[in-house]
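Quick one: structure tokens for this chain, please?
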Amino acid sequence: MVIAVDAMGGDFAPQAVVEGVLSGAARLPAQIALVGRPAEIEQCLATSTQWPDNLQIVTANDVIEMAADPTRVLRRPEASMAVAVDMVRDGQAQAVISAGNSGALLTLAHTRLGVIPGVRRPGIAAPLLSRRGPTVLIDAGANVDCQPLHLAQFGLMGSVYAEHVFSIENPRVGLLNIGAERSKGNSLTAQAFDLLADMPINFIGNIEADGFFAGQADVAVADGFVGNIALKTAEAMAQFLMGDICSCLDDGLGGRLARLLLGSRLGSLRERYDYATYGGALLLGVRGVTVVSHGRSDPRAIASAIEVAYRAVEGGVVKHLAQACRQLVSEVD
């Protein structure tokens, strides 16, 4: 297995990316291709005491800026992100990861890799913490304007992802809504409800935001506008709460004693709520494993993203999605 990593993508690239790759390469039996400007990558590697055998550098001298217009990235074939995506297209890699311009990555993956037959819109599947483990939120921002069929397909793709990456048997799929009652929502969710109920998945109906975090569903379906707001709100709230807890523990003698008593449990809690634990979200529906990472990804987030990509390839997510969509199309015909 070869995983292509855009070394130049992200707010802290290439240093954070290279450090994350070094950590990920040491943990997984996969070849990691760092795609970018060799001189800058090698400068980052110079601080490492050991260069893993499963690491290689692939030259790409152009860089897509975080503020670049996604509609124009197709004119920059020498950019690190484009070269990494093309490696998957050409069979030189089985997965691509970038913490760079997410709009550009979606555009490149959609056009260069193509869409699985039967899929109307690829969707971003982001795993978020709930009381019962990870809950897959899809779509987390790829499509702000959706039709009911798009949401139904998100439910199918999210179910396949939860089953084959997180080993959840018969995943429960819920439609994120303003109420659990069948009558709640707008015209989009009302029509999507009926389509989801006809999908070959374990659809459990509407769930509210509190049900999402309570673990009522293994997959939460939303359009990209709602999904992205839910994702960003959840991440910001987790950071706010952890910062507030730490501030309380630094306040006075009682707080410092509490910090000493909590010890490693506090660190475990911080890690549990940190976005870097999950590292990245899969773009489901394209013909290649594509991991969209946060622009502010640190080395730990990059290492986690590599693990996400590895599990997706090992689990055969693209193959299983293609089979599910093919079966669905044949049933409709």
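The chain has a mean pLDDT of 88.
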